[in-house]
Amino acid sequence: MDAAISQSMNYLLGKSQLFDGFILTLSSSHLAKGGMLVAIMLFAWLWVPADIEAEKKDRIIGNRTTILAALVASVFGEIFARFLSNYSSFRLRPFLEASLDMQVPDSLKALAPDMIANSSFPSDHAILFFAMATGIFMVSRRWGLFAFLYSSIFIAFPRIYLGLHYTSDIVIGAIIGIGFALAGIWLLRNSKVLKRIVGWSMSHPAFFYPVFFLFLFQVATMLQDVRDFAQLLKLL
Questions:
Q1: Among residues 173, 184, 171, 208, which one has the least CA distance to residue 74?
Q2: Contact, 85 vs 156, CB < 8 A?
Q3: Three-state SS string across the chain, please?
Q4: pLDDT in tens, 91-110
Q5: 125-173: per-residue pLDDT in tens?
Q6: Burial state string for 63-102 with b = 16 or more CB within 10 A and e = fewer than 16
Q7: SS in 3 state form for 115-146?
Q8: pLDDT in the model for residue 129
Q9: What sign does the CA torsion over 22, 171, 92, 180 have?
């Protein structure tokens, strides 16, 4: 089934240079991927005005604690993805699999040396962004559904279309991400530490939001800087 879907996607690849270029741009754009999900998450964070009546303050704290719990869980989900990638059975990415004979753009072929050592399973994109969508969903059903739909169309689909992942890599990654987010929210939603952080966001916004921005920037870019520095430490 996985191979059949990848080959059917490859049949479409090359039919429209404009569409292929759009999908390639989506697949490499941190703005279109993590940036959009972070923007929706920030909307959910600020969804209830800060100057509402005191009896609704608990709602603000609850929403923000849920979002923080989902973000923390998504980071742990990424760590788990790296563990699975390194220690489970290696799976070559579809566009590198000779038996599938996939025709891919030259710009994607140029990434082959970097990707050939990385297992296709599971999709860390699916784990991270579906975990974030779950956090949004737990605060706002409407925006959460939009986040799931956006993640499926603009993040997951390009990975399958270009042969960067098999469909099962995406589906299982999404399940893992949702599971991590739900577990994190269940375990951390009543955490005193997270509630103190939320309280700090309300009492000291000038100090909180620059730090929060840096954290969200790393999440939006899939912890790329953290990974680069971690790799550097290994070289040292």
A1: 184
A2: no
A3: CHHHHHHHHHHHCCCCHHHHHHHHHHHHCCHHHHHHHHHHHHHHHCCCCCCCCHHHHHHHHHHHHHHHHHHHHHHHHHHHHHHHHHHCCCCCCHHHCHHHCCCCCHHHHCCHHHHCCCCCCCCHHHHHHHHHHHHHHHHCHHHHHHHHHHHHHHHHHHHHHCCCCCHHHHHHHHHHHHHHHHHHHHHHCCCHHHHHHHHHHHHCHHHHHHHHHHHHHHHHCCCHHHHHHHHHHHHC
A4: 878 777 766 667 776 666 66
A5: 999 999 999 999 999 899 999 999 999 999 999 888 888 888 999 999 9
A6: bbbbbbbbbbbbbebbebbbebbeeeeebbbbbbbeebeb
A7: HCCCCCCCCHHHHHHHHHHHHHHHHCHHHHHH
A8: 94
A9: positive
Please tell me the distance from the alpha carbon of residue 72 to that of residue 132, in angstroms, as a whole number.
10
Tokens 């009546």 belong to which residue?
53
Tokens representing 113 are: 């040396």
Tokens standing for residue 16: 């429209």
Using an 8 Å Cβ cutoff, are 161 and 105 in contact? no
